[in-house]
Structure formats: C-alpha cells, structure tokens
Amino acid sequence: xxxxxxxxxxxxxxxxxxxxxxxxxxxxxxxxxxxxxxxxxxxxxxxxxxxxxxxxxxxxxxxxxxxxxxxxxxxxxxxxxxxxxxxxxxxxxxxxxxxxxxxxxxxxxxxxxxxxxxxxxxxxxxxxxxxxxxxxxxxxxxxxxxxxxxxxxxxxxxxxxxxxxxxxxxxxxxxxxxxxxxxxxxxxxxxxxxxxxxxxxxxxxxxxxxxxxxxxxxxxxxxxxxxxxxxxxxxxxxxxxxxxxxxxxxxxxxxxxxxxxxxxxxxxxxx
Length: 271
Hints:
This protein is α/β, with parallel strands linked by helices.
C-alpha cells in the first residue's frame, strides 16, 4: 500500500515528524511518501502546499497555531475529502482546562533561546570534545561517562544524550590499553558500561571493516579474542559496581532512555 503523508508545521516540524514516525511504526508493508512542509506561516505559502496536496492526496497532519491558516487548511482538505489531523489538540485542550488558561498561539515556543537551550548547546560541545577517551582530564565535569568495547554505539549514544542536555564523555575499553585511573575516581558523573554479545559484535565489526575495504580476518573479529574482550569489560564493570546496559537488541534511543532513567533515579536518591 502506498500512502502520501503531508506534514505541515509552523515551526521546525521536529515534533510532528516524531509523532508520524511513531505512528507509522505500528503498521507493516506501507510504502510512505512523506511531504514535509515546515515554517508554514502565510496563506500564500499554504496555497502552494495545497496544490501539492491536491496532486498527491493522502493524510494531512499538522501543527498550526494561526487560526486563519488552520481554518483554510481544514476547509480545503474537507473539500477534497482528505483527513486533516492536529495531533496536539487533545493535549493542549486538556492542559487548557486543567490550568485554566488559553494556550499561547505562538509557533515554535519550544525552541526559544532560553537557559535550557544554551545548556543543551554546551552539552553538545562538551560531548564532541570528549569522544573516544579524549580530554579525560575533564571527565569530572561530565554528567555521564559511557564505557564499552569498540562498536557498542558509545559515540552515537553520547550525541543523543547531549541533545537531551547531558554532558557525555565516552571511553573505549581495550584489553591492551587500560583506561586512565581517573575513570575509577569519578564522583559526579554516572559511569555506565555498554556491552553486547560477542556474535553481534563480530558481525558489526566485520561490516565496519568491509565498509573500509580492510582485511576482515584479524583479532578485531576473532571469536575467542572478542569473547575475551567482552569478558574483560564486563569484569571491569562488575568490579567497579557500574550499571551495565546490553545494547545487543537495543536501539540508540532505547539505550539513552535507560541511561536517562538511571540519572533520574540517582538524582532522586541523592536528593
């Protein structure tokens, strides 16, 4: 089945994309053609979009706060017999009733340049500067330090956490090159060990070597060597009583969510 999905937002559209992605994940065998329309803030702009919608009819999902633009979209979609959904309406209406106030009809208010925004920028800069064991002298400034053998998604998980506002450093665990003693002395950061099954690790590493056109028969992908490497890392995590996450069947988002929960629980206990 082929579906044209039109996403209209008066801001960046990030929220709308995430909602659509989450909903589509519940359906199989659907070929989706996404038409993404951010920063829709004028009737002239909307008119051009409506022409495209008319040529490729499908589901219209929108987050528009301007009442005139919204009414224009809903009216034209109704005339074409197309569903137009505003997924945030129910939440906004419920909040309005509970808080006793009208929602502010200002687009992109979640993207204001406030203290939280600059803290997130700072976290991203810190994380990039402390990738793969670099600048370990500053680890005490981190919120999270990820440790794990090569190819356990340390870097992408760190970047994801940074986008959520957590200063994150990471360190590869290598049998032949033990980490600096600073790692065992950290007080402020939450140190989390990332591990995976040896078979999965070998598969990922082989794909990595193939992509680099390098020899695939090395100790880097040797069954016994990899098992020993994983066991060495697990032993280090256990000896230091660090929480461990097995990333074998976890997405980066799921791993990050588990780590954020650990941070919240640790903060609650500390408080």
